[in-house]
Amino acid sequence: MAASTSSMRAVRYHGPGEPFHNDEIPVPQPGAGEALVRVGAAGICHTELHLRHGVLNLGVAPLVPGHEIAGEVAAVGPGVDAVRPGDRVAVYYYVGCGRCSWCRQGQENLCRDVVDQFGFTADGGWAEYVVVPARNLVPLPDGLTVEEAAALGCSATTALHAVRSVADVRLGETVVVYGVGAVGYALIQLCRLAGARVIAVGRTPAKLALAAELGADVTINADELNPAVETLRLTGDEGADVVFELVGITETMERSVAMLRRRGRLVFIGYS
Ligand SMILES: [Zn+2]
Ligand SMILES: [Zn+2]
């Protein structure tokens, strides 16, 4: 089944330092094993700002960014029977080689021979449609909106990996989420689910208010207080069991070390 229109609107990256453009480009067509997804929601990750500013440059331009994608299958190519038009789906944005040890363990994000990363090396979700391998589609349960599902594509899964696999946050621990953005909000919720006490650090009052709404027990405005000093005060001079550093500058890295308990776990997520 072909898409009903031949061209679509897309926001595209045109190289480091260049502003994103609103472009009209052809609707991509699904080949064998692929599906055309009508994008219902696509997230904006800080990584897109890194692309825009040249912090990250993979040399592919013009490119449709957007790696947090959810929507509905619009058409499928030959040989696809796992999904069909009308299915609500989220997109997993890595296409690994499928043969290396990482891919065989289901960790395509560590593949040394990645075929494609939608939104980075191949057109992603900031468009009306995107074509991806059908095996990269995850069916959405009823009750999960496309907006919620899109965030699971990067920020929420980054947080899940950090909380469970890297830091292994435990019941009763004190955790600092140093930087409140999309990953930080997911971290706060996941740490609360793990039974931890959460201290959120930021500079923007509205973001800190949302952090509190999502479950942070304490919020610290870094413009008003030194988060390291304050964390030590809140933990009886012990320091935090776990610190997630989401900013990636020298000052926040140094303070993250200073607020850490003996044998604490410090997880760097931010880069800038
Ligand atoms: Zn991302
Ligand atoms: Zn691989």
List the ligand species.
zinc ion
Shape, principal axes of CA atoms? elongated
Low-confidence regions:
none
In the CATH hierarchy, what is the superfamily of the largest domain? Answer: Medium-chain alcohol dehydrogenases, catalytic domain
User: What is the fold named in CATH at topology level of the largest domain?
Assistant: Quinone Oxidoreductase, Chain A, domain 1
Helix content: 25-40%
Order of helices and strands: EEEHEEEHEEEHHEHEHEHEHE
Mean pLDDT, nearest integer?
A: 95
Q: Helix/strand/pairing class, anyone?
A: alpha/beta
Q: Strand share of the residues?
A: 25-35%
* CATH architecture grouping of the largest domain: Alpha-Beta Complex
Computed over alpha carbons, the radius of gyration is 20 Å
Secondary structure topology:
Blueprint (H helix, E strand, L loop, with lengths): L6 E6 L8 E6 L7 E9 L3 H8 L15 E8 L11 E4 L2 E2 L5 H4 L11 E2 L11 E5 L3 E3 L6 H6 L3 H12 L7 E5 L3 H12 L3 E6 L2 H9 L4 E4 L5 H8 L5 E6 L4 H9 L1 E9 L4
Parallel strand pairs: 10-11, 10-13, 11-12, 13-14
Antiparallel strand pairs: 1-2, 3-4, 3-8, 4-5, 5-9, 6-7
Helix pairs in contact: 4-5
The chain binds zinc ion (2 copies).
One zinc ion binds next to loops.
